[in-house]
Structures are given as structure tokens and as C-alpha cells.
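From the methods appendix. Each design record in this collection lists the discretized structure first, followed by the designed amino acid sequence. Records were kept in a plain field format so they could be parsed without special tools. The example shown here is representative of the layout used throughout.

RECORD:
C-ALPHA CELLS (70 positions):
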């Protein structure tokens, strides 16, 4: 069985294999939970902006008035 060089066995990027595990080890779990909740609240805010825009586009007011001509 041939042994592969170290460069070929490396399957991920620096961020995925080094930086993220390092940060997970130094950031306390309660801090991670706060950041996760922050991301959720940010996405909820984006959702309300999208919902508002959809409702404005769905309920466009008619311009002008209807006049009966004799």
C-alpha cells in the first residue's frame, strides 16, 4: 500500500480545518449561544423587510378614480 504525501491527504481549507476549530475552543459556549441568537434575530429582521415589501407590492392602490360618463 502506497503512502500519500501530506499535501494530498489534506482535504479542507485553512479556515475549515484550523481557524474554526481553534475559535470553537477559545469561545465559551454561552458566547456562542449569544452569537447564534443574534444571527437568528438578524434573519428575522430581514424576513420582516421582505414581508413588508411583498405586502406593498400585493396591495397596490389604484391610481385615479372611476368616473361614469353619460
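DESIGN:
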Amino acid at each position: 500500500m502506497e503512502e500519500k504525501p501530506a499535501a494530498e491527504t489534506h482535504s479542507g481549507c485553512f479556515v475549515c480545518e484550523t481557524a474554526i476549530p481553534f475559535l470553537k475552543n477559545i469561545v465559551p459556549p454561552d458566547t456562542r449561544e449569544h452569537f447564534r441568537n443574534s444571527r437568528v434575530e438578524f434573519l428575522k429582521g430581514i424576513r420582516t423587510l421582505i414581508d413588508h415589501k411583498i405586502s406593498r407590492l400585493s396591495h397596490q392602490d389604484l391610481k385615479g378614480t372611476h368616473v361614469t360618463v353619460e
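APPENDIX NOTE: Residues 28-58 form one domain.
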